[in-house]
Structure formats: C-alpha cells, structure tokens
Amino acid sequence: MLNDFAYLPVTLLTAALGWRVVRKSDLDRRERRAWLLFEASFAVQVVAHSVSLAQNFVLEMPSYPAVSDYLYAAAIPLVVAGLLVFPVARRSRAERFKMLIDSLIVVAGACMMLWYLEIGPIAQTPGADPEVIIFSTAVPVLDLLLVFALITLLLRRPEDAAVGLLGGSMALKVVADSTYTIAYVQFGVAFEPGTWPFVLWAAGAFLSLLAVHRRLVQNDRAEPASRGRRGRLGWLPYVAVALAYGLLAFAARRESLYPMGGMILGAVALTSLVIARQMYAQRENRRLAVTDPLTGLSNRALIAERLDELTRQPLREGRHGAILLIDLDRFKPINDAYGHEAGDAVLKAVATALRTVIRSGDTAGRLGGDEFAIVLPALPSRAAADGIAQRLVDALHTPVIFGDVVLSVEASIGVAFRDETVADTVQLMAHADAAMYAVKRSGRGSYRVYSPELDTNARDAELRRAVENDELVVHFQPVVGLAGGDSLSVEALVRWNHPTRGLLMPGAFIELAEETGAVIPIGEWVLRDACRQAAAWRAEIPEAEPVRLSVNLSARQVMQADLVETIRGILDETGFPADRLVLELTESVVLEPDELTVSRLRALRDMGIGLSIDDFGTGYAALSYLRTLPVSTLKMDRSFVTDIDTDPDAYAVAEAVVRLAQAFRLHVVAEGIETADQARCLADMGCRYGQGYHFARPMPGDALAAWLTAQRQESVSFTR
C-alpha cells in the first residue's frame, strides 16, 4: 500500500500535465497524435495504481494476475505507439528500411536473451495456471515491443528532450521488469517493495513526469536532428549480434564439440565475415559519399560536417579552431584558353598543395568549381593558422605544367576563427568569405584573417547608421582658372568622421558603399549638405555668388528611377540654383549608357545642371558616347598630370587628352596639380581649369568660406 501511495501522486500529476500538453496550441498534428497516445498511457497507469491500492485495502493478497496487472500491461502498447509515431526528420525509403533492419537485429538479440532467461522457463513451469503462464510470458513480449520502440527512437534521434526523458523512463521499466522476472525464474528470488527493481520503476515514473513538464514549458517544438548523428549509434546492431552469440555459446557450453560446437563456431565465423564485409562496404560508401571524385579531397558535405563539429565544440583556452576558404585567382581564363583538362590539372595540383600543408587532423576539401576549404581544429594558437595560410600561398605560387604549357595559379585565402562572436557554421563561413573577398579587392594572391571591419553586411549597416547619425562631413576643394588663378568652382568631397577610427577618406568606404548600395543614401546626403552650405555662402559672401558647386554622382544613383525628382527636391529644399550645380559622373556610367540613363541625364541638363565626366582616362569609356551624352566637361585624371613638367612623353599624352576634349567642344579640368610647373604646362597646352594641392587642399565648409572671402579676384564662370 505504501508503494501504491507513493506512485499515485506522481502518475496523477503526470496525467494532468500531459492533458495540458495535448491542449498546447503549438503542437502540430503528428506530435499531438503522439502525445495523445502518451496521455492515454498515463491515464491507464493512474487507473492501474488506483485499482492496485483498492485491491490492497480489500484483499490481503490479490491473485496474480490481478486487474491492476492487466492495466499496467495495457499501458505499454500505448507508449510504444506514441514513441513510434513521434515526428522526427524526414528520411528516404532506403534510410527507413536500414533503420528498421537495425532495430529488428537488436530486438532479435534481446528476444533470444529473454527467451532463454524468461519466456522459456516460464512456459515450462510444471502445473502452473495457464492464465498465469500466458500473462507472465506476455510481459517480456511487451518489454520487447518497448525495446523495439526505444531502439527505433535512438536511431531516429529526435531533438525533443521530453521524448528523450520518456524513452529513459521506458528503458528503466524494461530493466526493472527483466531483472525482477529473471531473479524469480532463474534464482527463486522475489524482490519486496523498496528494493532496487521497485526503485527503478519509481524512477521511471518520475522521469515520465519530468518529460511531460519539459514539453509543457517548451515554447516551440524542437527541430529534428540532422541525419549525420545517426552514425554514432550504428554499433547497436553489432552489440546485439555479439550478445546473441555469447548467449548461444553459453547455452551450448555443455554440448560436445561435435556437432554443436563446430556449427556454432562456423555460424559465428560466417556472421563475423558478413559483418566485416558490411562494415567495409559502409566505410567505402561513406568515403565515396564525402570525397570529391576529381581531386580526392573531401567534398562539401564532409566539410559542412566538420564545421558543424567545430562550431559545437566548447571554447577552451589554448585551443583554437579555424577555417581557410580558398578561391583560385584567374582560373576561368585557364579553362577558356586551354580547355577543361588544363583546368582539372590545376585543380589536382591545388589538391596536392593542400595535402602538403595541412596537419594529420585537418580536413581539406573542394567546395565546388575552383573553391576549396580547410578546417583546422585544435590549433595551439592563432599564429598556427597564419603559418598554414602563408605556406599554402607559397605552395600555390608553383606553376603547373600541362603538356607544353606552364600555367600560373594563385589563390585568395580568407581565414576565420571559431570564437565567441561565431554562433554557427553559416556565420563562420560568412566571416571566411568576407576575408577572402577582401584579399581579392586588395590584389589577390595572398591571405587575410577576418576582422569585423571586413564584414560587408556589418559595415554596410554601419555606413547607413553614419548617414542617420550625421557622422559624414563634406570638405571642399577649389577649382581655379589656370590662366589667372581665379576661383571658379568647388568640388564637394565626402569624409567619414568615424567615432572610433577618426576621419576616414573616401577610399576607406566608398567602394564598399558602391557594392552594397549604401552609396545612394550617402550620395543624397552629400548633395543636400553641399547645396545647403553653398547656398549659405552665396547669401553671406558676395564673392561666392558666381561659384559653381561640383558633386559626385555614383553609377547606382544614376540608375535610380527617381533621380531627377530627388535632385529637384534637394535644390528646392536648400535654395541652391540648378545652373550653379555640376554633377560629376564616373566613366562606368559613360561606358554603355542605356536609353533611360541618357533620358535622365538630359532631364538634368534641361534643368540647367552641368554634367562632367570624372577621372577621364582611367576606365573604358567609348569616345563615341561623348557625342551623344549631354556632358560639358572632362576631368582629366591625375595620372595624366604626373611628370608632365619633366617627361616629354607624359606631356604629349596629356596634351592629346586636352586636344581630344576640345574636339568634342568640352572643357577640361586637370586634377592633381601639385606644382607651379605642372600648372604652367597645362595652361600652355590649352587646359583652362585645374585643381590640386598646389592651389588648395580640401577643407571644411567654414574654411572654404574664409578662403573665398580672401580671394579678391573676379570669378569667371564656366562657358557651356
């Protein structure tokens, strides 16, 4: 009675909480069906304990099997059904079939043991009541069903901790049932309440309560486990086979070597050979499944598996994990020029180089195409990853000989470490990818370790916040007439007043802004702020009234459908006149302008806005477009100005650019003038305007206003 009193509150609470689980709104249809079966089992157990308690009050010694015993037995199939229908990850038909075979192997081994130790001796009990025999043999059979459900559950590996606790509860019940019955049948020992089989039954009941409580407090159903984790339990069928043969050998220990001994040894040998062949086939299939057929390296699947293992490992002092992401430079031209056989030869040579630099515990793989990766676990220091990356860079400098051709190959390598900032595999790969593309932008053929400033997404967000937080500033550089040195216009140049890195020049962030699209809000902010300041100069400084304002317009801005409306709105907002504004275009806009681009530019020209081509000569602009685009000015890149005062060839090239612009009836502004001799040479060849450190450096708006005030010469406007 004390035993039943101890069980009843636990089972009642389990059933009550189980009903609340069934009514949870976040359960899907399949999971709700499983928990309904579990709840039915809990309810039957409550009734069973209640009946058992009543029997003990009414009868001093209830007959066996009693009503409560039948109820206990009836609860088992309900739990088995719930465990089998519980939803987990979807699997292919082949995977389900393999899992079924593995489960049946384990159950067959358990069946042999229970038959020898329980079912057989019970069935042969002389003079026993048939009902007792039938029920007593039914109990281990039901336990076999539980074993089947539990093994199937283990092989399916659901992530739901509640189901894991419930499975543990059923495992304790199987152990308690088996030990109780075996002790009685084989040794005549009858355990009393309070002994360890009863403790296991009680612990199982308490685990069921914990399982229900765990599922009740979960907000969302856990996702199914990945398929890769099943392999860790693949040894269970082999253990079952070994136990079965051990039991067979024990049962036949008194038989003579002939004929039973030899047959048993032969069966063991045959089964061992079949198992060995199967294990070899599994290893071979595994090798083929995770190996790149061309290079013999690991493929993407194994690299992903190793990365998952790396990101799941706890961080430890003195132990570092990293990934090297490798992308070959200029690999496509090799394929195009010499064929795919040459490309394959390069890929095989790269694989050989990877094998020479990695350690025994590292994993090198090909992700696809000309992209490779190396997973480096358990590094003694971060410097070790740098050393491996540098050795790989050096190894890939070795040319590849393909027939009569010597092929040069290099690689851009991004290195990312597993640290407290990395949440999962996706983020680790993103860090390595960001570092690798930083190498490509900076010249290729090298490696770089990830740092937060390389994160394109993070930097893009930082750039956009800089616009919102007014961290950008505009500096202005005067453009003067080379003949008289009078001020004609000023160019607005953006700077980033970074809160931690100080004042940053455009080269530190404009290229990234172009890639991510942040250049659009940045460009609009610069235009608005520059027009606002220039309008203030015009109102306060008489000398500033004729000055033109030049502002850069990015290719992405030109592609915006609302470009004209945006610029018109900024001019209306700031009060700056359209005929005093010049928009400087990059040569990428001039390369192949479509009809929409040309129409937008013409609409801007019709508003009175001047258009200029910036850094002319550094790109690939077709000269024919200079006749069709509504531009009025060419800004000659500083590379043409360097050495024109000392090198006749440099002078001749610069003069040709000036004559070309004059042929198209365009004004020329020379950039990067640093000496008086360069200014004189440009004036002699007919270049009328220039800017550079020789005249003035870029300066903040208030300094430019003071500079304009100091200029007491008459300003000369551009002639269209």
From TrEMBL:
<feature type="transmembrane region" description="Helical">
    <location>
        <begin position="34"/>
        <end position="58"/>
    </location>
</feature>
<feature type="transmembrane region" description="Helical">
    <location>
        <begin position="257"/>
        <end position="276"/>
    </location>
</feature>
<feature type="transmembrane region" description="Helical">
    <location>
        <begin position="100"/>
        <end position="117"/>
    </location>
</feature>
<dbReference type="InterPro" id="IPR043128">
    <property type="entry name" value="Rev_trsase/Diguanyl_cyclase"/>
</dbReference>
<feature type="transmembrane region" description="Helical">
    <location>
        <begin position="162"/>
        <end position="183"/>
    </location>
</feature>
<feature type="domain" description="EAL">
    <location>
        <begin position="456"/>
        <end position="712"/>
    </location>
</feature>
<keyword id="KW-0472">Membrane</keyword>
<keyword id="KW-1133">Transmembrane helix</keyword>
<dbReference type="InterPro" id="IPR035919">
    <property type="entry name" value="EAL_sf"/>
</dbReference>
<dbReference type="InterPro" id="IPR052155">
    <property type="entry name" value="Biofilm_reg_signaling"/>
</dbReference>
<feature type="domain" description="GGDEF">
    <location>
        <begin position="319"/>
        <end position="452"/>
    </location>
</feature>
<keyword id="KW-0812">Transmembrane</keyword>
<feature type="transmembrane region" description="Helical">
    <location>
        <begin position="6"/>
        <end position="22"/>
    </location>
</feature>
<dbReference type="InterPro" id="IPR001633">
    <property type="entry name" value="EAL_dom"/>
</dbReference>
<feature type="transmembrane region" description="Helical">
    <location>
        <begin position="70"/>
        <end position="88"/>
    </location>
</feature>
<dbReference type="InterPro" id="IPR029787">
    <property type="entry name" value="Nucleotide_cyclase"/>
</dbReference>
<dbReference type="Pfam" id="PF00990">
    <property type="entry name" value="GGDEF"/>
</dbReference>
<protein>
    <submittedName>
        <fullName>EAL domain-containing protein</fullName>
    </submittedName>
</protein>
<feature type="transmembrane region" description="Helical">
    <location>
        <begin position="195"/>
        <end position="212"/>
    </location>
</feature>
<dbReference type="InterPro" id="IPR000160">
    <property type="entry name" value="GGDEF_dom"/>
</dbReference>
<feature type="transmembrane region" description="Helical">
    <location>
        <begin position="132"/>
        <end position="155"/>
    </location>
</feature>
<feature type="transmembrane region" description="Helical">
    <location>
        <begin position="233"/>
        <end position="251"/>
    </location>
</feature>
<dbReference type="Pfam" id="PF00563">
    <property type="entry name" value="EAL"/>
</dbReference>
